[in-house]
Structures are given as C-alpha cells and as structure tokens.
Specification:
With about 130 residues, this protein is an alpha/beta fold. The chain has helices at about 15-25, 45-55, 70-80, 100-110; strands at about 5-10, 30-35, 60, 85-90. Helix 2 links the parallel strand 2 (about 30-35) and strand 3 (about 60). The radius of gyration is 14 Å and the shape is globular.
C-alpha cells in the first residue's frame, strides 16, 4: 500500500515548518509528502528544502507551470501522484499524530476508497 500526502503552498513560511513537522511525526510513517509551491516570495521554498534534506519522504515538486492559485496548485500535484491513498494537507494546519493511522484503518476496515475528513480544534494562538 502506498500513501501520498499532497500539500500546496504559497507564502507560508510562518506555518510551514510546524505543519511539515506534524506530518513527519505521524504514527503511520510509510508515506511520501509531495509539496508544490505556487511562486512564494518569502522563505517557504527554502524552509521546505531545508526539511527535505533531513527527511527523504519530503518531495518538492518542481515544474514550469506558472502560479494559478491553490486549486490549480493541488491539481498539478495530483498529476504527479501515483499511489493507493492520497491525503490533502493545508499549509497552515497541524495534524494530530495519529491522523493517518486512524483514517487508513477506517478505510481498510470499511472497504472504502474515499474517506472525507475535516478535523477541527480551536487554536488559541491569536
């Protein structure tokens, strides 16, 4: 079974390291994290690359497609993703450490291919 997590980024250097760290800390760890940046003008790409050097599961998808927004960005990542399961990750979320494990277990136990999931927890950082 192969698992890809895809993330579209744009000017997210205030959040990206924490989000990537939360994904890399999953209890289920056999996955690839495919990230495509949509032309950030801050340090987002540098932050991603610095983490990719440390963990080979992180793959920065590079192409010659111009910036077209988050929807097109996700669509372009999906084109480069051949896998059994795909999870979407926003650039500014923090994942619970067992998110992948629980969703994959649910999908297998119920013989389903699509598991929509929105998990929300209030953030008191503002």
């Amino acid at each position: 079974m192969t698992v890809n997590i895809i993330m579209a980024t744009y000017n997210s250097n205030g959040y990206i390291k924490e989000q990537i760290s939360s994904i890399l800390s999953q209890t289920y760890c056999d996955f690839k994290l495919l990230i495509r940046d949509d032309g950030s003008t801050d340090n987002t790409v540098e932050d991603i690359m610095s983490m990719a050097v440390i963990d080979e599961r992180i793959i920065l998808v590079k192409d010659n497609i111009e910036s077209k927004g988050v929807g097109e960005n996700f669509k372009n990542i999906l084109r480069s993703s051949e896998t059994d399961y795909i999870f979407l990750a926003d650039q500014d979320d923090v994942w619970h450490e067992n998110k992948l494990e629980e969703l994959l277990c649910f999908a297998k136990e119920n013989f389903i291919a699509h598991v929509p999931c929105i998990a929300y927890a209030p953030w008191s950082g503002c």
